[in-house]
Specification:
- The chain is of the alpha/beta class.
- The chain is about 35% helix and about 15% strand.
- Helix 2 (about 30-35) crosses helix 4 (about 120-135).
- The longest helix is centred in the first third of the chain and has 19 residues, at about 5-20.
């Protein structure tokens, strides 16, 4: 082989290595998501009280410990059809617990195994983003706030973990909590919203504390999102619809117990409130993707035939809640939505007073 051809081959190899060296890496939260939800190379199904949920709890605890945090496991039992099962909340603090505390929570169990769901968006995405944010705050925690991260168990069977956690708090501990940010299904839907609790109080059980429908935390999180790289990356406050005033949500996730204890909440959720779903414009239909409809009518933003529609654009609790399907249908959507939420919430948590004061 003459020198010229050796030079060409060497140049080609160097160019190829340079290309590979500059390929965009997966963000950390996407790596966590794959470890949680992929059935072959990850944990997969994580139904409440199952071995999969226990494996998830160990994975989350181990990651928190790798960051250098002290992990508290809050174990509890619950019943399903008279069968007693066990789960746990996983809790860490970034600073002095006597400081005003902001909680970031996400449930780690999944549901609808019988329908083929692996809980990729519900709620692998929430846990994955929470882990990445916790890693960011290791060296950058605010000096005037404590940030508490909680992975809740057994959410899908009645919000068991979050209710147990809130019921365990003393009155002085409740008074020290500035607010709770709930991550539940934060990627996968057409848009990413942030909600406050409904102004009509939830049906709170066993709580003598005043209900909170404060918008202070929601508004602060929206403000922190306003300098994202494009308009679509910014958190949205949904328009008013029947039963749900502008930017408000129902009691169906882990924010419920906190609002009932008088704690302001901000609930981050990816869905699509512009869709006229099975029960109206309630955000339960997450996407206009035709794969997830028997027939979608773009003009009415709803089903072509409401009487016979079965799918209703729903990802959660269905066979479509698998990462391989979602990445095929929405290339880079999950990655970008995770990245944007991590950037926004980390920015807020690094300097809460910059946003809460407005």
């Amino acid at each position: 082989m003459n020198g010229f051809f050796k030079f060409i081959i060497l140049l080609s190899l160097l160019m190829a290595s340079d290309v590979f060296a500059h390929q965009p890496e997966e963000n950390l939260s996407l790596q966590y998501l794959k470890k949680l939800v992929l059935p072959d190379n990850g944990i997969g199904v994580r139904e409440a009280g199952s071995i999969g949920e226990q494996k998830s709890a160990k994975f989350i605890s181990d990651e928190f410990k790798k960051f250098g945090y002290e992990v508290t496991l809050q174990s509890f039992d619950f019943k399903i059809k008279e069968k007693t099962l066990s789960s746990a909340n996983i809790v860490i603090d970034t600073g002095n617990t006597l400081l005003p505390t902001i909680i970031v929570g996400a449930h780690y169990d999944s549901t609808a195994k019988n329908k083929g769901s692996f809980g990729a968006i519900d709620n692998g995405t929430g846990v994955a983003a929470m882990l990445e944010i916790a890693s960011i705050l290791v060296e950058n925690s605010p000096t005037n706030f404590n940030i508490r991260f909680i992975a809740f168990g057994a959410e899908e069977v009645g919000l068991v973990g979050s209710k147990y956690y809130v019921n365990s708090l003393k009155l002085e501990e409740v008074a020290n909590i500035v607010g709770m940010i709930n991550f539940d299904t934060i990627a996968g839907g057409d848009f990413v919203y942030v909600h406050s609790a409904n102004s009509t109080p939830y049906r709170c059980t066993k709580s003598d504390l005043p209900y909170s429908n404060s918008t202070i935390l929601r508004n602060a999180v929206v403000l922190a999102s306003q300098n994202q790289d494009d308009e679509q990356s910014q958190f949205i406050v949904h328009a008013e619809s029947k039963g749900y005033p502008k930017g408000e949500t129902g009691p169906w996730s882990d924010h419920y117990a906190f609002a009932c204890a008088g704690i302001p909440i901000a609930y981050v959720e990816s869905t699509n409130f512009t869709i006229n779903g099975e029960a109206g414009f309630d955000g339960y239909s997450q996407t206009i993707n035709p794969l997830l409809w028997d027939c979608f009518d773009a003009k009415t933003q709803g089903a072509c035939h409401r009487e016979s529609e079965k799918k209703w654009g729903q990802i959660w609790h269905t066979e479509y809640d698998q990462l391989t399907i979602l990445e095929t249908q929405y290339p880079n959507r999950i990655k970008k939505q995770l990245s944007n939420t991590v950037a926004t919430i980390a920015k807020f948590l690094l300097a809460p007073n910059n946003y809460l004061a407005h």
